[in-house]
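Record type: monomer structure entry
Structure origin: computed from sequence
Chain ID: A
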Amino acid sequence: MQKGEDQKHVVVLLGSPRKKGNSTVLAKQIIHGVESVGAKVETVYLNGLNIKPCQGCYACKKKNSTGCAVDDDMQSLYPKLIESDAWVIASPVYWFSMSAQTKIFMDRCFALWNEDSEISPIYRKRIAIAMSYGDSDPFNSGCVNALRSFQDAYRYAGARIVGMVYGSAEEPGEIGSNAELMAQAEELGKKLIIS
């Protein structure tokens, strides 16, 4: 068990408007794995925040910038993202990709990226992804589109996606009955901290 200064800190970003939805169930199982190896968890419900879309103003990239110029709830979220050791991002598939709440969050992470990777707060950040979708097929549902977006964006930024868990379920919470997937999610939580 980790304690004190050595204790790892994980921020969990829930991108579903359903507080008991399937992607949240997956995220909670990842949290169980994270906590089982002694890490501290902070959960953020994105749908409950006032997060505006990126304005493409590039204020965050200007010399002597103090960060993103958009004054909203991301301003209180940025320090948590920077100071954490790892993130868990959970989203349902909505209209063939991640939820709008998740995508707006991802776009606003642009302010954390820097061409000089050594000073970029997102460089080498450890990330786990959890996704749920309604179709029986991850390709037909659009889940693969979302997974690819996560891979491409965070690889470009120099972050490390430690793993992804995803599965099909229709009714809120139904995914919890998939024992194999729940075990994979818990293992991903452990791997996020100890690998």
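Annotation 1: The CA atoms of residues 86 and 126 lie 5 Å apart.
Annotation 2: The chain has a mean pLDDT of 94.
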